[in-house]
Write a sequence for this structure.
């Protein structure tokens, strides 16, 4: 079976990733309504007709000469990699601007198909495009599609097949400005007369490239004998062009030419049937959401609402899950006669994994919120609103996007900093992403907030924790800007996408995938971690204590109260002398000033692997040390009985600030440019966490 390698190129936010999702009938690529969603090239392959199609999704790029990191990815790929067909995706409602990239891509001389996306919006805006006419001008197949409705997608796939099978692209009918055309004519007639041939280029194409000062072409021909006669002609032609354009800068000249051509194509091919009412809808919404006075309060209110919902709605199924897990544990426990095995299953696996599963509803609500923010187009607005505010902290609005992504998970957040142009802006943003509490920290907060606050307050407190973390991040950004990465935050232009109704299937798939990977993590990583923690807190066995206590218990005889308390004492002794207990005890002095006992200390340490493990560790440690024998007591009640309010708050502060999980730390090191940065991050976050937890504890105690 033939494989066709197709690369999708286009400007940001035109629907490249969504188009691949639609063509392949999957939802594997991340789609969002703001620029810079895709930051890394990603491949998807599927079968169509008798071919395997390998589709490469590139980050959006305004031009091939772009200079941000993710634009370079696109640039390098298009120039240096092997592929068969380029699908240039355009937003058909912004044809003129999008064509600028098309004109550059045409110069690559590859097989190419234009996909004019957003056909549905085009219709709604009352615009009509003469597809055949564009095709005649650019000389490559053009298809009107909608990744959203699926319209034209079959036709596009067909065009890709045809383009792959065809020998060479048709010649284009792009007309340059008069000076250019004159000189193209001169040079090409000369080349023609001399019978000069180069690759499969026509004389006109060669002439054009010479005039556009194409480096590669010059490299190819500069030693050719024809140059003796050609050189003076080129000089004269360029002089002519320079005088007309009043500059010798070919980059500017080319840009001017392309702008003129793109405008010309748009004027010739796009017709407006009615006035653009839809533009007005976006403007109307913006008048409110971008309002100087109420814009930011509206945003804060929405965030507050989200955390209220997280708590209010999240706590309903949480109770059911909790009850179900408890009952399940009791039932399984009664089936297993062997003591150690029962303890492993009930106190290890079920307690550890169960503690994490409990928070699935909260995670789902959080992700619905983030996904809505990303898909409606609101995110770019907030970035714009906060720009001025961010500047006070040495950042700019564009950092907002990685920071919000960080509320979900730090890994993609670190990667999305690639859209920042300046290296310093990027490093500062990388360093503070961890202050945005990720989804995995949510269970820790919800657990502790649920224990120490009334249900009425809980949502507010949760909101406060997130805001405090974010605010702290900003202050740290300022400090980094002042003392480490000195300089000004660079100005930027924020793309304002149209508002779009979030498509149900898009939100569903995103949230479903997040929920599934949370469950998967609980079933694999957390499961393994829980077993490990159970093991490390149950062994080594201590026969000495056991025999000592069994003698005492025997001596206590009928005194049930005494027996009970002796049994509890034994459990605690065993736990404290286990491997984990020893580690906890050894490191306890470091955390003692913060009011943490050794169990909390251990939970923080295991939490370096993943933040959910903080919760599962507490789950296991308290299940093993369970001091009540009438059924299992929930982790919440255990915490309430064992931890003081001040310690709990200091614990929340520590979790809020300290090093992100192992996976995220690795990605951080890669994105920042080395492990030395990870070492800085470790010192930076641990010190900050310790100091602020200390203050919190001392103030509250
Ligand atoms: N109405 C409509 N919306 C679309 C269509 N195609 C994509 N979108 C929306 O346009 C936005 C951008 O889609 P993406 O697929 O993320 O765009 P992209 O080109 O991959 O963007 P980058 O990765 O940032 O370069 C999303 O909100 C999509 O839902 C379409 O045909 N019609
Ligand atoms: Mg994309």
């Amino acid at each position: 079976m033939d494989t066709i390698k197709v690369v999708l190129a286009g400007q940001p936010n035109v629907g490249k990733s969504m188009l691949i999702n639609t063509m392949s009938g999957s939802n594997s690529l991340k789609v969002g309504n703001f620029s810079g969603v895709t930051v890394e090239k990603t491949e998807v392959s599927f079968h169509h007709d008798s071919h395997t199609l390998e589709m490469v999704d590139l980050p959006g790029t305004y031009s091939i000469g772009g200079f941000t990191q993710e634009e370079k990815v696109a640039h390098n790929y298009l120039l240096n990699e092997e592929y068969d067909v380029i699908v240039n995706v355009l937003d058909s409602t912004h044809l003129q601007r999008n064509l600028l990239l098309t004109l550059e891509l045409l110069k690559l001389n590859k097989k190419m198909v234009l996909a004019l996306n957003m056909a549905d919006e085009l219709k709604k805006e009352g615009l009509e495009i003469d597809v055949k006419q564009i095709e005649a001008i650019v000389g490559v197949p053009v298809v009107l599609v909608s990744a959203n409705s699926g319209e034209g997608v079959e036709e596009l796939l067909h065009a890709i097949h045809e383009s792959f099978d065809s020998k060479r692209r048709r010649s284009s009918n792009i007309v340059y400005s008069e000076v250019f055309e004159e000189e193209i004519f001169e040079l090409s007639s000369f080349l023609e007369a001399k019978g000069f041939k180069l690759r499969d280029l026509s004389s006109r194409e060669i002439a054009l490239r010479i005039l556009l000062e194409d480096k590669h072409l010059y490299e190819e021909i500069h030693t050719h004998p024809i140059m003796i006669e050609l050189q003076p002609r080129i000089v004269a032609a360029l002089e002519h062009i320079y005088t007309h354009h009043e500059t010798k800068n070919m980059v500017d000249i080319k840009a001017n030419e392309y702008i003129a051509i793109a405008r010309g194509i748009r004027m010739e091919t796009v017709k407006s049937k009615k006035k653009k009412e839809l533009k007005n809808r976006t403007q109307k919404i913006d008048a409110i959401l971008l309002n100087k006075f109420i814009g930011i309060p509206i945003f804060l209110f929405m965030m507050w609402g989200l955390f209220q919902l997280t708590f209010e709605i999240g706590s309903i199924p949480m109770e059911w899950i909790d009850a179900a897990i408890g009952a399940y544990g009791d039932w399984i426990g009664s089936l297993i006669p062997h003591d150690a095995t029962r303890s492993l299953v009930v106190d290890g696996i079920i307690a550890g994994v169960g503690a994490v599963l409990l928070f699935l509803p909260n995670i789902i609500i959080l992700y619905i919120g983030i996904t809505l923010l990303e898909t409606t187009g609101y995110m770019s607005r907030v970035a714009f609103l906060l720009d001025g505010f961010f500047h006070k902290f040495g950042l700019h609005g564009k950092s907002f996007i990685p920071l919000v992504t960080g509320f979900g998970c730090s890994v993609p957040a670190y990667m999305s900093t690639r859209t920042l142009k300046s290296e310093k802006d990027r490093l500062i943003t990388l360093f503070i992403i961890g202050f945005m509490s990720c989804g995995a920290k949510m269970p820790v907060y919800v657990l502790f907030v649920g224990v120490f606050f009334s249900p009425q307050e809980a949502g507010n407190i949760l909101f406060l924790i997130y805001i405090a973390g974010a605010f702290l991040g900003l202050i740290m950004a300022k400090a980094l800007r002042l003392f480490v990465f000195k300089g000004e935050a660079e100005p930027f232009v924020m793309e304002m996408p149209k508002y779009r109704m979030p498509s149900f299937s898009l939100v569903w798939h995103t949230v479903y995938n997040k929920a599934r990977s949370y469950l998967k993590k609980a079933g694999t990583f957390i499961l393994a971690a829980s077993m490990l923690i159970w093991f490390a807190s149950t062994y080594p066995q201590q026969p000495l204590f056991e025999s000592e206590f069994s003698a005492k218990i025997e001596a206590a005889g009928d005194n049930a109260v005494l027996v009970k308390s002796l049994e509890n004492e034994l459990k605690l002794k065993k736990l404290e002398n286990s491997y984990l207990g020893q580690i906890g005890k050894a490191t306890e002095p470091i955390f003692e000033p913060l009011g943490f006992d050794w169990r909390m200390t251990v939970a923080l340490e295991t939490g370096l692997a993943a933040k959910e493990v903080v919760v599962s560790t507490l789950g296991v440690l308290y299940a093993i040390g369970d001091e009540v024998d009438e059924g299992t007591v929930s982790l919440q009640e255990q915490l309430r009985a064992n931890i003081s309010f001040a310690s709990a708050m200091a614990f929340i502060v520590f979790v809020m600030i300290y090093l992100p999980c192992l996976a995220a730390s690795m990605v951080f090191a890669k994105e920042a440019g080395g492990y030395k940065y990870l070492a800085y991050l470790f010192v930076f976050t641990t010190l900050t966490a310790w100091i602020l937890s200390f203050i919190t504890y001392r103030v509250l105690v």
Summary: The chain has a mean pLDDT of 89. The first helix runs from residue 16 to 24.
